Amino acid sequence: MVGDQVQREGCSPLQRAARLRHGATKRSAMALLVGDIGATKALLAWAETDGTTVSLARPRRFATADFPSLDSMLAPFCAGTPSLPAAACLGVPGPVAGGACRTTNLPWLLEEVTLAAACGLERVLLVNDFEATARGVLATPPRHLHLLHGPGVRTDRVLAVLGPGSGLGEAVVVPHREGHLVLPSEGGHADFAPRGELQRALAATLAGPEEHVALEHVLSGPGLVRIYEFLVRTGRPAAAAVERAAPARKPAAITRLASSGHRTCQEVVELFVRVLGAEAGNLALRCLARGGVVVAGGIAPRILPKLADGAFVTAFLAKGSMRGLLEEVPLAVCTDPATPLRGAALLGYERLQEDRFQYPGGQDNP
Q: Nearest CA to 133 among 352, 285, 338?
């Protein structure tokens, strides 16, 4: 459960490196409401951070579809708290500009000022959800980073993070001065580049009138269902448990049946893993991620044995003349569900520091 994994843990090598880069000066702790808002589910928690380590308390999970708006989810969560923090930092599924976000896979328009007023907070910060995930990777405990290839992940070099969930998130972490810059992206909406006859047939099936098949149409929970439906249409046997499942539960049913030996579901996951490995290699080349590529998100931990069996790394390395470069790039899977919450806390701390935001009852943040 998330609640068992989000308390303060010992410093990982990534945290120690980040602490050195961010300076060793002791800084006052800051309390925040933090959230990881996805198209399917949302996690909310209370956080305390000094800019390097993060403690999380009272995490709660919500089904996003149960709420007509984000403020209708936040208000009851905040209502039972006698002493609210002054600010919140929320990772949201879409690009953020001017304090607002029109979510990609939800019918919501989010605005920082409106959310702050609805929840009784002085300040709400919206950040891209995968920006928060990428920042949180730097504070991930070592037991939650599973190395698949190459040397250990390094934070003093460019680091790429991608992760399939309700969509496909991608971000890049760049060392900068004494800290790091997180560069969010909408790379999940870039074109799917199929390899081989089967993937090309899948792409042809998914192509709409504009003939654009986004990567996240394949590399996501809904993408697993699309692959499954495609394979069934080509003659593979259907899985009764997948056919019976509610739409939101079909991806989990597919990965569960794949691990228990259902051949069609195994083939779904095999194709998914090969496409994910190829895109991980693409992302590494695009930003020269010599610090490593980390796969995060909700799906990767569920298929970790398949990611570790060699096909994923093979697809990652299959870049012709650039194979030698990728041989030196670490490749790891993050299995910590609290990573986006930690990242939201750290981003909130850093941005409020930059804004010289005053916390009631505390000291000015320098």
A: 338
**68 and 86 co-located in one domain:** yes
- Which is nearest to 129 in space by CA: 98, 150, 103, 108? 103
**How many domains would you assign to the chain?**
2
Contact criterion met (CB below 8 Å) for 60 and 77 = yes
Q: Which residues lie closer than 8 Å to 355 by C-beta, 6 or more apart?
A: none
Neighbours of 39 (CB within 10 A): 22
| Residues 309 and 350 reside in one and the same domain | no
Q: Which two tokens stand for residue 338?
A: 């609290």
Alpha-carbon distance 195 to 267, whole Å? 15
Same domain as 191, residue 93 = no
What does the alpha-carbon distance between residue 82 and residue 63 come to, in Å, rounded to a whole number? 25
In this structure, the strands spanning 54-63 and 123-128 are unpaired
Mean pLDDT in residue range 96-111? 91
125 within domain boundaries? yes
Exposed, middle or buried: residue 324 (CB in 10 Å: 0-12, 13-18, 19+)? exposed
- Pairwise CA distance, residues 189 & 217, whole Å: 8
Instruction: Tell me, yes or no, whether 199 and 246 share the same domain.
Output: yes
Sequence-ordered alpha helix ranges (H) in 152-195:
none
pTM of the predicted structure, to 2 decimals? 0.86
Q: Is the pLDDT of residue 25 over 70?
A: no
Domain range holding 9?
2-139+338-354
Whether residue 83 sits in one domain with residue 40: yes
pLDDT at 322 over 90: yes
